[in-house]
Amino acid sequence: MKSRFQRILGVSMKMLAVCVLLFGASMRATAAGALEHGSADLSEYILQSGGFCDYTYEMQAEEDGRYTAEAPLYLAPGDEESVKAIILNALQQRQESIRIASYGIQQTSVYAIYTKVINEHPELFYVNTYLSWSYNPSSGNVTTLYPSYDETYTDEDVTLFNHTVAEIISGVDASWPAIEKILYLHDYLVTNAEYDTTYSRYNAYNALVEGSSVCQGYSLAFKCLMNQIGVGCDIVTSQELRHAWNLIELGGEYFYVDATWDDPLGCNDLYCGHTNFMVDRSDIIAMGHDSTDWVCKISTADAYNSIPGSARYNDFFWKSVRTAIPLVGTKAGVLQGDKMRVYDLADGTYVDHKITKGKWYCWNSSSYYRDSYASAVACEGAFYYNTSTEIYCLELDGTNTLVYTLSDEEQEIGYLYAMQCVGRNIYYFLQTEPYGDFTGVALLRMITPVDEFVIRMYQQCLSREPDTDGLLGWTEQLESGRMNGAQVAEAFVFSDEMLSKNLSDEAFVKVLYRAMMGREADAAGLAGWLKELTNDYSTRSEVTKAFVESSEFTGICSAYGIVRGDFAASGDIERFVSRFYTICLGRPADQKGLWGWVGQLKNRQMNGAQIAEAFFFSAEFTDKNVSDEAYVDLLYRTILGREADADGRSGWVEQLMSRRMTRRDMLGAFIVSDEFTRLCAGYGIERGSL
């Protein structure tokens, strides 16, 4: 008889034999249709890795299974576009493998197709240049691609890139003609990116998010922006020049654009040239693109000879302009001596408006430069330009108004040489010489009704003018809808800065009249509100609520274009805390201290028990050194809201005097009483315990 071990071993051997048979069959099946693998480093041909376009070669296998480019490549356009769409979708989702077996694509075509996808879609900045694939050796058809990704770029980076691009495009008015959109985005890129002298940043993320790249990054960023507005855009490269630029297709004509060379080294951040913008081949060659080995997608073999480009804009008004061109609607303003010529980019007409012309003196000298260094920006539907010491507003109808003159302190560090508009803020830059470093920068804000509302709060509640950051912050809160008029009013009236003034009731009410009603207090109204406060009929937050929800404040908010909102008074909480000041500490509450505790209770950062402990064991109270009898009396009045009964008082005092209870223990006992529980509930406060 076989042992149990032998029986188990026998069964196991039979199972093993079956497995061997099955495995052998599987091996024979795999061998019959075995796939082989190829791989390539495409960095030489992918722009975002520092390479240059080259779509005229196919891949040839070397002995180690890697591929190099040697022979011409010819692909069926339909097949190529179908596979490109599949690859693009997969790369956008960061898929580890891309199945393309059904398309019958030869492995020799993989190189050109894959590099085109990446070069045509700058948003794929996170894709690496190394590619491997599997293929059927009998047919040569590729079955699966295996891309690689740069793991230093996270999903958050992709989100940030997309957000940045969307924010840039939001500055484009949909009603603009295409040429105006192209001009705006060219100027944005030139003034917000700088050339990377470390020669290590090549992609669109580097240019648009980080603000620094070499020519590949500039050209990829520009193509990305053109893709967003639906303008045909290609990238041209030259191995001889080691350079990349763009080719625009507009209305059936082609134009060359080189944002990199319109942003030369050695100039300040606001310099923006246009000599390489929307020109033909002859003009771009004259600017230094004088090689003949140009390569681009639409002309893979001989772009230099086959795409002469259009001369339509060769000598257009922007060619000599060295700053971003200001745009108001479809109007573009260009300073020319003592006038601004305003071009209508929609119909090609222009009108001249007289401006104030200034002189730029050599620093610390009575000599002045022959040239004008005025600059112009567009802001809030008008043009703004500068002399050496002044800023003017030029309306579209030609009205010319002085809006700002440099202070004496500013003129001691430089003259006005440049301006930049961000939103409705004009930043002006001081320099001591043309094209030198900035010696100062300041903000000139175009005041809107919302600004005026915030300024009103600063002036009436805090008795001062707003600081720049504060004005921008509160205005942004109101404009975004994150806060309403009532919430901003509450934030100012009960801010630490206003509370620190410790205003009397009369002074407090007068502030409310000026801030919320825009007028001085009438005698009867003032007397009525003072009676409310003096007799404890109303707390300050309840009085503020009445002002904020008045018809007068509602009208003020409406006039400023602000949603009023409702005011949530915290009168009961104020009364609860005030009891501790008046009974426990024996004095009126200071406003900053009162609202500090009110805020903690209102936001549920503290409860009634914690407030009680904070007051009874504060330095101010312990310094009073009250007797045990007085301590018990204060507990009755503050915690229970009544005078002590005789028996209860003597019992608690005896507990303290005999050391059977500490004062903290006794406070804890009072806190958990039914009376304090009801008191807290009456004030809408969580009781808690020690």
What's the helix and strand layout?
Blueprint: H1 4-32, E1 36-41, E2 59-61, E3 67-69, H2 77-92, E4 98-99, H3 110-120, E5 127-135, E6 142-149, H4 155-169, H5 178-192, E7 194-195, H6 204-210, E8 212-213, H7 215-229, E9 232-238, E10 243-250, E11 253-257, E12 277-279, H8 281-286, E13 294-295, H9 303-306, E14 327-328, E15 331-336, E16 339-344, E17 350-354, E18 376-379, E19 382-386, E20 390-394, E21 400-405, H10 408-411, E22 415-422, E23 425-431, E24 440-445, H11 449-462, H12 468-479, H13 485-493, H14 496-499, H15 505-517, H16 523-534, H17 540-548, H18 551-559, H19 571-585, H20 591-602, H21 608-616, H22 619-622, H23 628-640, H24 646-657, H25 663-671, H26 674-682
Parallel strand pairs: 7-8
Antiparallel strand pairs: 1-5, 2-3, 4-6, 5-6, 9-10, 9-13, 10-11, 11-12, 14-15, 15-16, 16-17, 18-19, 19-20, 20-21, 22-23, 23-24
